[in-house]
Write a structure and sequence with these properties.
The longest helix has 17 residues. The protein is of the alpha/beta class and 326 residues long. Strands 1, 2, 3, 4, 5, 8, 9, 10, 11 and 12 form a 10-stranded mixed sheet that branches. The chain has a two-stranded antiparallel ribbon with strand order 6-7. It has one domain: TIM Barrel (Alpha-Beta Barrel). The two termini are 39 Å apart. α2 packs across α3, α4 packs across α5 and α8 packs parallel to α10. Bound molecules: ligand PBG.
Length: 326
């Protein structure tokens, strides 16, 4: 018989050969772990829709940080649950706000751990939207001042990276100018450049108490049906001075991760969001899937698509599994 076909299986023959030709590797340094910080003492509330994820009070944070550092994880992103909410989300830019306090504490406990501050208002506003409301509309420009104030207060507390997730137009310009004017020229901005109006954020809104009290986020977050618009969104963030771009969610948007990686030369982050976490947890708890195998396949897939950085609630698990070796 004439052998006029290619034997791809030669390179799959043994674990050694497979490892030799493996194209992408997940590394613990790729991972960022999200943390939810809240007021009170001895608070460690498990989020019902996110098994293994907790709202933590500051006195619980030190232990958590030590664990994260011991696992070799390089960075965390912080979300705050304030004591009180108001129309202007003032808890977001309060110098003594919960995230500001958490940043100070973490920088004291583990100075080299990278602290990323999520910059948004929705956890702090009584209406649950990411900006200022007038007659049931989310206003763009008046919201920018508050986002800039939030970013400045987070930088002042010691945040290493500012990550604006509010999807107002011009948020990178507003925050860059605000940081530059207040002596924080060297603080990078990781922009949630391409953030879709996604149902995959459901469990996060339980965790952070940030569900919109009326309407939805479709006038500021992107339509899941759009791909070319993602490039326009990313382009304006690049022009405005973003240092790192982000795509969010990740799983249903692998094509967008790939396209941003091809089009732009900035580092690229992917947010493996709450709903993606909950789906896997629920299936694993039912014994329907092999959690470890599925998680590693998913995270490696995100790297293959082009992500340099992955924000994931699986960061601690993945770090453990990477340590054990696959
Ligand atoms: C705040 C914010 C959200 C998430 C990160 N930052 C929620 C939202 O936009 O409603 C979602 C994260 C997740 O689902 O894991 N704007």
């Amino acid at each position: 018989m004439d052998l006029d076909f290619t034997r791809h299986r030669r390179l799959r023959k043994s674990p050694g050969i497979r490892s030799l030709v493996r194209e992408h590797h997940l590394h613990v340094h790729d991972l960022i772990y999200p943390l939810f910080v809240t007021y009170g003492k001895q608070v460690k509330n498990e989020v019902p829709s996110m098994p293994g994820v907790f709202q933590l009070s500051l006195d619980q944070l030190e232990k958590e940080i030590e664990e994260i550092v011991a696992l070799g994880i390089q960075g965390v992103i912080l979300f705050g649950i304030p004591e009180e909410k108001d129309a202007e989300g003032s808890g977001a830019y309060d110098e003594a706000g919960i995230v500001q306090q958490a940043i100070r504490l973490i920088k004291k406990t583990a100075p080299s751990l990278i602290v990323i501050a999520d910059t948004c208002l929705c956890e702090y506003t009584d209406h649950g939207h990411c900006g200022v409301i007038r007659e049931d509309r989310v206003l763009n420009d008046p919201s920018l001042d508050l986002h800039a104030r939030t970013a400045i207060s987070q930088a002042r507390a010691g945040a290493d990276i500012i990550a604006p997730s509010n999807m107002m137009d011009g948020f990178v310009t507003a925050i860059r100018q605000g940081l530059d004017k207040t002596g924080f020229k060297d603080i990078p901005i990781m922009a949630y450049s391409v953030k879709y109006a996604s149902a995959f954020y459901g469990p996060f809104r339980d965790a952070a108490g940030s569900t919109p009290q009326f309407g939805d986020r479709k006038t500021y977050q992107m339509d899941p049906a759009n791909g070319r618009e993602a490039l326009r969104e990313a382009y304006s963030d690049v022009v405005e001075g973003a240092d790192i771009l982000m795509v969010k969610p990740a799983l249903a948007y692998m094509d967008i991760i790939y396209q941003l990686k091809e089009q732009f030369d900035l580092p690229l982050a992917a947010y493996n969001v709450s709903g993606e976490y909950s789906m896997i947890k629920a299936a694993a708890q039912n014994g329907w899937i092999d959690e470890k195998a599925v998680v590693m396949e998913m995270l490696t897939g995100m790297k293959r698509a082009g992500a340099d950085i992955i924000l994931t609630y699986f960061a601690k698990d993945a770090a453990k599994w990477l340590k054990e070796g696959n």
